Amino acid sequence: MSAAFDILGQIERPWSELALASCLEELASAYGFSHVAIVTIPSSDEAGSELKLLMTNWPEEFRQGFERLGLGRFSPVLRALKADPAPFIWDVETLHGYDPAEPGEASAQARLLIAAGCVAGAYFPVHGLTNFNGALFLAGARPPLCEAQAHELHLAAFAIFGILAAARFEENKRNNPLSQRERDCLKLAMLGKTSSEIGTILKLSEYTISQHLASATRKVNASNRTHAVALAAQLGYLS
Asked: Where in this chain does the entry annotate a coiled-coil region (predicted)?
């Protein structure tokens, strides 16, 4: 088993974001990296679309610089992550045209990375079957990854996103804003039952059922009943 999966295998259930964050730092250190993050990849090509941070160990100054200098919008990286499911391995010289070993003027982006000790790194994309796409980001002062290490970390990226999804699902269940009746109504609506049929099953009036469904729709910020069912199920509220 790889070092990445040895580390991930130590996370105890129930999975939590706190445990995952600690695990990510250990994983990064094991491969010689100092900076780690989980990011989402924008699905559209609209102006202003950029990588969004979900979890990171970055110092605040580096995070602010990354956002201010547009590294989350850097087009070569975004194009590669959207178009290719393979890992994107980079170094400052290749990506920003600057060799730290050679004297000369560096771009602001390169200076930020070099000052943080991020002279090389990689993005490991995770392309889902839905519209969700993300990546594991690693960077540090080590040489570029070899093929075997890149393969290990890319497999680990899929596991990491699975653990994060499960942890958030459980957290949503604990913080469920829906009442028991609202959950009952949504579960039956998910089975294709009408308000009248749900009322018969729950021994409530059709008006009362409609009120419960309308309230649930507002709580999950859905546009209609069908949308509310989908969102509530996705968020773990109906489990």
From this structure: none
